[in-house]
Write a sequence for this structure.
């Protein structure tokens, strides 16, 4: 019998007192997605300890309504990520709570017409007060009324201005943290959210157009990738944030690189989507190698898991690791 495949044993988990980081290390020796999550912790630690690596995070889905936004904010505050690319929803629906409103435990098995009657919005098993949600939209609207509309903004420029405004109001959200740390934050599909509602209201009622050009976002993030020795990516879900970061590896060579690609050296993907439907959110990191978006030598892992399970475990494990990391400064190239 050829024993080459029978070298690394699966190790049974024993129940005992331990830290979360100790548990996740032991999970590397179990099977299925437990092992994948353990391997993701390894890849994440390598990224954080590699001083040459710029870490870019892409977030999609409904993380902020699900109680995850303070983890993203913590990653920014602790310099564990250098660039954030988000859906508009995740960087507006955190503001709803940062303003003092709450999300509530609900149920997907309910009469939604009843919720509509009482102005309660549902996110699967979570409820929100529509009046409070409108207050958040109006906050964005009132901010946008007072900014210079004579120029065209990247979403990063717009969001930094908004972060400054939020900080003055003592509303401490993801965008506020990005502003305070001067960390680039992009939302290429910003209009697909409360921001779109607020800015379209501004155009209709005040005849004021705040122009945000997503191609400027791509120019900026491409410059960041081109000027980084290495890049590592963390994808929570997929959608526009993931594809935007991947595409930037192709446009990065526009800024003086000799190669026609600048593939990522590290990659972690946490998703509940699967690849056989052909969609971007489920496509594998291996598929991205064929495009030159991820290096064939990259340290990479996909975890097929709900982010509300995987993200808190990874974050607390990193907290216990006590890794210290310096912020990267991109101001000269933006």
């Amino acid at each position: 019998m050829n024993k080459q495949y029978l070298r690394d044993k699966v190790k049974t988990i024993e129940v005992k007192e331990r830290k979360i980081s100790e548990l996740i290390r032991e999970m590397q020796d179990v099977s299925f997605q437990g092992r994948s999550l353990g391997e993701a912790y390894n890849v994440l630690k390598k990224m954080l300890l590699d001083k040459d690596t710029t870490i870019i995070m892409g977030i999609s889905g409904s993380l902020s309504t699900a109680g995850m936004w303070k983890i993203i904010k913590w990653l920014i505050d602790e310099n564990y990520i250098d660039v954030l690319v988000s859906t508009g929803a995740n960087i507006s629906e955190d503001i709803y709570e940062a303003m003092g409103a709450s999300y509530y435990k609900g149920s997907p098995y309910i009469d939604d017409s009843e919720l509509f009657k009482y102005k309660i919005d549902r996110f699967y098993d979570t409820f929100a007060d529509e009046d409070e949600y409108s207050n958040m939209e109006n906050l964005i609207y009132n901010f946008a009324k007072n900014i210079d509309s004579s120029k065209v903004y990247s979403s990063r420029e717009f969001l930094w201005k908004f972060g400054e405004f939020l900080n003055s109001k003592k509303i401490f959200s993801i965008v506020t943290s990005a502003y305070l740390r001067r960390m680039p934050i992009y939302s290429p599909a910003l209009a697909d959210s409360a921001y779109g509602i607020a800015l379209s209201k501004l155009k209709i009622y005040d005849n004021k157009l705040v122009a945000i050009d997503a191609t400027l976002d791509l120019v900026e993030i491409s410059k960041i990738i081109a000027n980084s020795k290495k890049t590592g990516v963390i994808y929570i879900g997929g959608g526009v944030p993931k594809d935007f970061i991947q595409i930037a590896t192709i446009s990065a060579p526009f800024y003086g690189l000799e190669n026609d690609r600048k593939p990522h050296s590290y990659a972690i993907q946490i998703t509940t989507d699967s690849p056989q439907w052909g969609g971007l959110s489920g496509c594998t990191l291996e598929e991205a190698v064929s495009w030159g978006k991820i290096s064939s030598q990259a340290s990479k892992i996909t975890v097929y898991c709900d982010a509300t399970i995987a993200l808190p475990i990874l974050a607390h494990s990193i907290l216990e690791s006590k890794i210290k990391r310096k912020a990267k400064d991109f101001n000269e190239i933006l």
Remarks:
- The first strand starts at residue 53 and ends at 59.
